[in-house]
Amino acid sequence: xxxxxxxxxxxxxxxxxxxxxxxxxxxxxxxxxxxxxxxxxxxxxxxxxxxxxxxxxxxxxxxxxxxxxxxxxxxxxxxxxxxxxxxxxxxxxxxxxxxxxxxxxxxxxxxxxxxxxxxxxxxxxxxxxxxxxxxxxxxxxxxxxxxxxxxxxxxxxxxxxxxxxxxxxxxxxxxxxxxxxxxxxxxxxxxxxxxxxxxxxxxxxxxxxxxxxxxxxxxxxxxxxxxxxxxxxxxxxxxxxxxx
Length: 244
Hints:
The chain has helices at 2-22, 30-45, 54-66, 84-96, 134-144, 157-160, 178-188, 206-212, 215-222; strands spanning 74-78, 100-104, 116-118, 121-123, 150-154, 168-173, 192-200, 228-232, 237-241. It is of the alpha/beta class and 244 residues long. A seven-stranded mixed β-sheet has the order 5-2-1-6-7-9-8, with helices on both faces. The protein has a two-stranded antiparallel ribbon with strand order 3-4. Helix 1 (2-22) packs parallel to helix 3 (54-66), helix 3 packs parallel to helix 4 (84-96) and helix 4 crosses helix 5. The mean pLDDT is 91.
């Protein structure tokens, strides 16, 4: 029974990888897709306690590769922790000829009083959680990804995003807090190209789900209707698509 469970766990990991390799619409060759999967797996093996799933990474990698190459839109990762996911995304950004803009305080979670719930249990995020220095993140990207495809922006979102001017092709949020999610959406959604996608790795947190479904937030803060949302509960991922 133990071996069977290990096989199932392994198959859940490799099945989406094989599906990714089989895709012919990503504008990279079969061998590039194979090498990318190999590189992603090698990065995974190089770290312990990685706070993401391979399915989450592949979803956003596909969005990066499918983003229009003819636009100047950058790719956004908000919340990078140690830069493991960043290293992975940077490899896809290099293949797509895109710049990966990494937004993080590099001081962890800000002070907050938020209480969350997930799967029937309460969750809270303490000040300083998920803290990693800018230097550590840079070194992890340099050692495992493509640092030349990245632009790292240090600071709290309330300080760095009001002046953000780049058009955006795709967004990956892993910011944990409703307040941080609101700030990212307020300033980045208007910059997102039509048809672009926002991914939230916080799709298992009920208050984050409620925010994305909050018609008043979208109307009052962004002046638009709520977007179509796909909630991928097995992947703890939420995806919102900007109307074309």
